[in-house]
Design goal:
Number of strands: 6
Order of helices and strands: HEEEEHEHHHHHHHHHE
Mean pLDDT: 93
Structural class: alpha+beta
Helix content: 40-55%
Radius of gyration: 17 Å
Strand content: 5-15%
Amino acid sequence: MEYRELSKQLCAVFNLKGITSKSYVHKVECILVGLTFVKVPNWDYKLFFSIYPLWRPTLKSCIDLPLLLLPLVDDNSLDIYLSDSTSIIEKCSKQFPLLSGSNTISDFVRILYEIIATDKSIQTNFILQMKIYELIYGVALYLNNIDIAQDVYIRISNQISGWDTKIFNYWYGDKDTTLSKLLEFESNKRRIVKNVDHNAYHLKVIKLPVYKFL
């Protein structure tokens, strides 16, 4: 199926609108959830499930780097090229349950932890794990759920000593400092809420379909 026609169908089924020329999302509380088309040079498109935070200082910084980017795959767990596949919408519904816009916060957290536990590319890459932990932590604080944020802290603190220090320092800085900052729940919550409220008034965000966690 041609890219533009497929994008229209996906937007209609999952209630998405464009936030960039290749990313289509809806807003769920403090995040943008949707699908991103990635062009393979001299070839075809691949489709990725994507989640962007709204708590970075600017909308551009939010949508430049997603916290989660999962490829649509076939039965052999290989990335799908869209022109070679059928039933794209059914595959998206099955593989990406968080696209539905009708999840509880418990479902959201459970599904993301399952991704960390089962996705082989994420299991072996603690930077990708940290992005998912940041996603859960940010949503939890925005919703004032300190128990979930505390659980994220515990999970990171139990693993961080085994992560390569030089690589971690490059991305996040000192490990001890990172852990201590995670415990600053109230100040982190204030910063998250402030930035989300600011970005929510951006013209690109105002036009998006809106959902809340059930």
